[in-house]
Design goal:
It is a single chain. The protein is an alpha/beta fold and 427 residues long. The strands form five sheets. It has a ten-stranded mixed sheet, with helices on both faces. Strands 14, 16, 17 and 18 form a four-stranded mixed sheet that branches. Strands 3-4 form a two-stranded antiparallel ribbon. The longest helix is centred in the middle third of the chain and has 17 residues. The structure holds guanosine-5'-diphosphate, 6-O-phosphoryl inosine monophosphate and magnesium ion. 6-O-phosphoryl inosine monophosphate binds next to helix 4 and strand 10.
Length: 427
């Protein structure tokens, strides 16, 4: 079976931490979509690691980590991550597998990303500029290069054809500052590292493993509200971030999907442009950003902050078929006198619990419920029963509103700061 962990908001829900925590219960951790736009933070033994392409099971010794066909890979970023693993003495060599069908991000994809954003001006997506959009465009446009192509005798020819096409396209956009020559040199040099990894026919590999009784944990990147089909389009990423993406991104059948573990912060954040109905522009928002240290793990940009958004979560729970929920960063609200949750929206002169198609153009006024804060540290709580009553009430209120069991509550960035609320399948 394949269990799935994914984000239910606009990314950065704490997926990396939860995958790392649960990984020991699995044989394989697999990324199924996205690329180095992701930044998954793991903190343990006083050290912090940020993973972009490598699955978050890599620090758990006995399991395999697969970069699935649905992922887009920039060999340069991957090499940097591998250097960090080497420095930390992590044996990755036979534990990090790459699907031959994963697409490659070329330097000119990153150039096109920057140029396309520059052309959009004020309407820009706020992309991480890692080349994600242009690479998925070439994939669906049937022009892309894949990991398995690197060994082809005419790889350089294929590369040059695509690169030259990109340069022609770039002429349609404003000029951007981009040192293509140096980027290309680094890119080709880093191909050697990619070649040194074990490449597999990911779909055969994973299905054979499942048949042999191995347990797989699929690790989502981004969040469901950034899904290419169901997110706040066009302010989204270019892949299917929801659970259906696991099937395409790894080559497994829907019937093999078991638990779908959805992660949400106890509040909400977004980095980049696009609608955010519960965004706060007041002291409470600034406090969430300050205490939660809300800066992008990939770009360092400040994250926008707001209250938790129940209609948006109900939407993403529906899309993903979430079977259990994890609440993260509840500790960030420890010193709040009161906390709020948006329970419905007002737009078009009425009250709604659904997101409108034209969410980007409408004024959406959230209706909030207010709950008393717990004004206490959760640091010394090792069990859910030790939570202050008011913190428990907030968690249980979320559970009632969302109609899915909350199985874990994260109380700090460290691997150890995790409270198991209910018995969980596999944990
Ligand atoms: P991901 O992209 O979903 O893996 O999340 P990120 O790593 O981008 O962002 C989550 C941030 O919150 C990281 O800095 C984590 O170290 C931190 N974090 C995760 N869980 C908690 C928590 O329960 N409390 C606090 N205070 N920080 C947390
Ligand atoms: P993790 O996996 C938060 C956002 C960008 C931008 C939009 C499109 O760490 O949760 P892209 O680079 O894909 O063209 O950007 O999506 N975005 C993320 N926001 N966390 C992420 O990943 C993100 N990956 C992309 O900020 O708004
Ligand atoms: Mg992140």
């Amino acid at each position: 079976m394949v269990d799935v962990i994914l984000g239910l908001q606009w990314g950065d829900e704490g997926k990396g931490k939860i995958v790392d925590y649960l990984a020991n219960n699995y044989d394989i951790v697999a990324r199924f979509q996205g690329g180095p736009n992701a930044g998954h933070t793991l903190i343990f033994d006083g050290k912090k690691y940020v993973l972009h392409t490598v699955p978050s099971g890599i620090f758990r010794e006995n399991l395999l980590n697969l970069i699935g066909n649905g992922v887009v890979i920039d060999p340069t970023t991957l090499e940097k991550e591998i250097d960090v693993l080497k420095a930390a003495n992590v044996s990755y060599q036979n534990r990090l597998l790459v699907s031959k069908k994963a697409h490659l991000i070329l330097p000119t994809h990153s150039l096109l990303d920057a140029a396309s954003e520059a052309a959009k001006g004020k309407e820009k997506i706020g992309s991480t500029l890692k080349g994600i959009g242009p690479t998925y465009m070439d994939k669906t446009g049937r022009n892309g290069l894949r990991v398995g192509d690197i060994l082809s005798p005419n790889f350089r020819e294929k590369y040059d054809t695509l690169r030259n096409k990109h340069l022609k396209l770039a002429k349609l956009y404003p000029e951007v500052d981009f040192d293509l020559k140096s980027r290309e040199e680094k890119w080709f040099a880093s191909l050697e590292t990619l070649k040194s990894l074990v490449t597999v026919d990911g779909e055969y590999y994973i299905n054979k493993a499942i048949k042999a009784g191995k347990k797989v944990l699929a690790e989502g990147a981004q969040g469901s509200m950034l899904d290419i089909d169901f997110g706040t389009y066009p302010f989204v990423t270019s892949s299917n971030t929801i659970s259906s993406g696991v099937c395409n991104g790894l080559g497994i059948a829907p019937s093999l999907i078991g638990e779908v573990i959805g992660i949400t912060k106890a509040y909400c954040t977004r980095v980049g442009g696009g609608p955010f109905p519960t965004e706060l522009f007041d002291e409470a928002g600034a406090e969430l950003a300050r205490v939660g240290q809300e800066f992008g793990a990939t770009t360092g940009r400040p994250r926008r902050c707001g209250w938790i958004d129940i209609p948006a979560l109900k939407y993403t729970i529906m899309l993903n078929g979430v079977t259990q929920l994890v609440i993260t960063k509840i500790d960030v609200m420890n010193d709040f006198d009161e906390v709020k949750a948006a329970v419905s929206y007002r737009y078009d002169g009425g009250e709604h619990d659904t997101l409108p198609f034209d969410i980007n153009d409408k004024e959406i006024i959230p209706k909030y419920k207010t709950y008393p804060g717990w004004n206490a540290s959760l640091e010394n709580c090792s069990e859910y029963d030790q939570f202050p009553d008011k913190a428990r009430s907030y968690v249980e209120e979320l559970e009632t509103l969302l109609e899915v069991p909350i199985t874990m509550v994260s109380t700090g960035p460290d691997r150890k700061s995790l409270i198991i609320k209910n018995a969980i399948v596999n944990a």
